[in-house]
Design brief:
Length: about 425
């Protein structure tokens, strides 16, 4: 028997251990996992030179901007950036134009996303006008997303009675509801005070931690009543995380954080100005430490990039005009592998945050290194040194808040359904 591809000389991440096993891939699937000498024959051979082969990593939170904002990113550029960053599967947010708030718009986005070189899932946005259609929409999306406050794209649902109805309807679909947790009324009040100054640092104060805390509390309360599966996106604060930790005892809740909360603080608004403008804003050193603790003790379930590209020109406006968001799908893994090398996190934990838990939470049943599963693999070199440079990025926006950062450990190849999409 000959197969499409064999991958040999690997340190294979197999059932939580690294083993000197190789892989055979045929018709997009893993057909054999064994010592190299026992692998079937193939004309296509990849020599890993002893590097680690991980199961395909997943980014559950990206904004690929198509349709509607394709000058910032599109499915082709976004997915190539993902592959370049060792990501084999992305889940795309609904705040495009038109937004994915209807069955029709979801079907149209799915068509556009066929250009993607990595696997993808789509979120449906929930707004006042589609709460009664949630059951139908559920057949066309992978999960739901609610913006409890205004952010990019204007998909806000901030009325608690409507939110309850949405939670209750989603609960019947058995899909996960992901929330952008900030409180709109509080943000409005603080914005009025702080926008008098155009100092970028004011942005951190204009969307305070308390706003995240109120929204998380509300979401937890509603999840308790409706028994919905709740996922809190981009947790940024210690207080927010503490609330989630407590609620894990009695509700089905998971949460994510993002590299920008682990590697930036509000002081970055002073250093790189509007480039560090994100929703929710970067927080204090104390919050950052609490998030790292949550990463290592398992309170944080998932690490996602919240890849939110905007052009440099858009970002370099006045702090109140510049759009919020930073790109990240391409740089998340290398930042985290550097953290592995610095013993801030173990590799096993990282695989849990970027593979195992996303698979489990979002029902991605074809994932994993097992015979019969799709061949989605992320190959990493823990010793390879890197320096991030805007010039090397594949994201269409062409910049990173980590431009100039140096570290060690990076993805060297990405395989999606048996195809080498980056090497
Ligand atoms: O900073 C952010 N940017 N937060 C969001 O909630 C939206 C995102 C975007 O789409 O730009
Ligand atoms: Zn968000
Ligand atoms: Zn987002």
């Amino acid at each position: 028997m000959t197969v499409d591809l064999i991958i040999k000389n690997c340190k294979l991440w197999y059932r939580e251990k690294t083993l000197a096993f190789g892989l055979a891939v045929d018709e997009g699937k893993i057909v054999s996992i064994s010592k190299d000498v026992r692998l079937p024959r193939s004309d296509e051979k990849m020599n890993c030179k002893g590097r680690i082969v991980l199961p395909g990593l997943i980014d559950v939170h990206v904004h690929f901007r198509e349709p509607g904002f394709t000058w910032k990113e599109n499915w082709s550029t976004g997915s190539k950036a993902a592959a370049h960053g060792g990501i084999t599967h992305v889940m795309d947010m609904p705040n495009t134009d038109p937004p994915t708030t209807t069955v029709r718009n979801l079907i149209e986005k799915k068509e556009l996303a066929k250009k993607s070189v990595v696997n993808f899932g789509l979120y449906a946005g929930v707004v006042e006008g589609n709460i009664d259609s949630i059951k139908d929409i559920a057949n066309h999306c992978d999960a739901f997303k609610i913006y409890m406050s205004e952010s990019t794209g204007g998909l806000k649902l901030d009325d608690n009675a409507l939110l309850m109805k949405a939670f209750s309807n989603i609960s019947k679909t058995n899909k996960v509801i992901c929330v952008h947790a900030e409180n709109q009324a509080m943000n409005e009040r603080y914005l009025r005070i702080h926008r008098k100054s155009s100092d970028p640092f004011e942005y951190a104060l204009a969307r305070p931690i308390e706003s995240e805390v109120i929204a998380i509390k509300d979401a937890i309360k509603m999840a308790r009543q409706t028994k919905v599966k709740l996922h809190v996106c981009h947790v940024s604060s210690k207080k927010g995380l503490d609330l989630i930790k407590k609620s894990k005892k009695d509700i089905d809740i998971t949460c994510e954080t993002c590299p920008h909360y682990l590697f930036m603080t509000q002081d970055d608004l002073k250093k790189i100005g509007t480039l560090a403008k994100i929703n929710p804003p970067p927080r204090t050193k104390e919050d950052q430490l609490a998030l790292w603790k949550g990463i290592s003790n398992g309170t944080i379930d998932i690490l996602a990039s919240d890849h939110a590209p905007h052009t440099m020109e858009e970002k370099l406006q006045d702090i109140w005009l510049a759009p919020a968001g930073v790109p990240g799908v391409e740089t998340t893994l290398q930042l985290m592998l550097n953290a592995v090398n610095r013993r801030m996190i173990g590799l096993e934990r990282l695989v849990k945050l970027m593979h195992k838990t996303p698979v489990k939470r979002f029902g991605l049943i074809d994932y994993g290194i097992e015979v019969g599963k799709n061949a989605n693999l992320t190959i990493i070199d823990l010793k390879k040194e890197w320096k991030i440079s805007n010039d090397d990025l594949l994201t269409k926006c062409g910049w990173s808040p980590y431009d100039g950062w140096k570290g060690k450990g990076m993805p060297v190849a990405t395989i999606v359904n048996g195809n080498v999409v980056f090497e």
